[in-house]
């Protein structure tokens, strides 16, 4: 089943070497194909119930505290600070960060505990970003966390311990994996220059080299889906690695060069292999429309419309995906408002949080997560396990529906905004005689429907009590 949705994105800017956002951000896919495998469908609906996940970028880029991978790309929009250093010198320095990455404070239990307190329900962890540095103990390259100064640490196979810590919190597990690998001689060959993000040789002239890269990629994906326990999501980034025939407007929006040949890694074979290893695993081949994009992943933005198809907005807590010194983190109120809008439009929120080079979340990150969790502890019924409805918004109110067909009306409140004496809406009207309550409160509210408008009244003590709340959630039975 294929449907087309042309979504407009409200793009939030990120700090990426003063770059235009279009160069790196994955926009919303304009097409979607619902899976046919019953096990995949079951897993997909389970994932849709979770609503709120965490995306953890962690790698050698945390050592200097710079944006992940992209600084070694030589496209025009990249601005490196030191103009006296040659590009080749910079790449050597960057790749050499593997010799300095020694996160002795690495504490995946701290991450999982903070995520659990935040009400997060699944994790996506960067097993390998575009720079090719592996955060798992792969046997197909030495460029990995378990081969540097951290090798003697009992937790050197970082991915194993991250996944184990989050499984102990009963979270779904996702493996982020970059299809391009800028450290591999089979992708960026030292024999030639590396002018952009693409493979730097003509695959048609060097088929052996590309076949070696494809096999290398398959070998690593086999390792991840074999050696690291139950995995629910394979999250594939680097959407320019794809068949040329699938190039679309989303890819063109990056403004990057398009090679005159396929960068094909044989996704049907990948899917067959990983689903033999992990039955029903979701595959998210970002922006490559078809059977291997099990849900869509707009980045740093929210679609303007509701969609019944599964999607996930990946948005950073701060200004960058990984750790950057002095990053500015969004207030918890802002994140809660994003979550409300995303969920009521049918999506999940994947919140990006980057640990320090020593392997810890900052106190400010932890406190933000705890504040979000306190709100969800009371109001989570209006978020988790719900589904979007066609009339998802009426003025300031957003609506979701639970599996028992109960309605939730979610009203975000700005900092310092007082809860008014009444609230009015016209859509999704309550059933005559039904009760309307605020989540976290026991007493029913007075309400009436006249001339097609529902008016709910709030007593003064409740107005005062909820003045500083990021949002309130009403629940009722609709007509």
TrEMBL record:
Enzyme class: hydrolase
Domain of life: Bacteria
KW Repressor (keyword) present: no
Keywords: Glycosidase, Hydrolase, Signal
Glycoside hydrolase family 29 N-terminal domain mapped to chain residues: 22-380
Sites marked May be important for catalysis: 314
Keyword Magnesium: no
InterPro entries: FUC_metazoa-typ (IPR016286), GH (IPR017853), Glyco_hydro_29 (IPR000933), Glyco_hydro_29_N (IPR057739), Glyco_hydro_b (IPR013780)
Transmembrane annotation, as ranges: none
UniProt record, GO biological process: fucose metabolic process; glycoside catabolic process
Signal peptide region: 1-21
Gene3D superfamilies associated with the record: Glycosidases, Golgi alpha-mannosidase II
Gene Ontology cellular component annotations, sorted alphabetically: lysosome
EC number per UniProt: 3.2.1.51
Listed GO MF terms: alpha-L-fucosidase activity
SMART domains xrefs: Alpha_L_fucos
Stated role: Alpha-L-fucosidase is responsible for hydrolyzing the alpha-1,6-linked fucose joined to the reducing-end N-acetylglucosamine of the carbohydrate moieties of glycoproteins.
Protein family per UniProt: Belongs to the glycosyl hydrolase 29 family.
Identification of the protein by name: alpha-L-fucosidase
Species of provenance: Algoriphagus aquimarinus
Lineage, uppermost ranks: Bacteria, Pseudomonadati, Bacteroidota, Cytophagia, Cytophagales
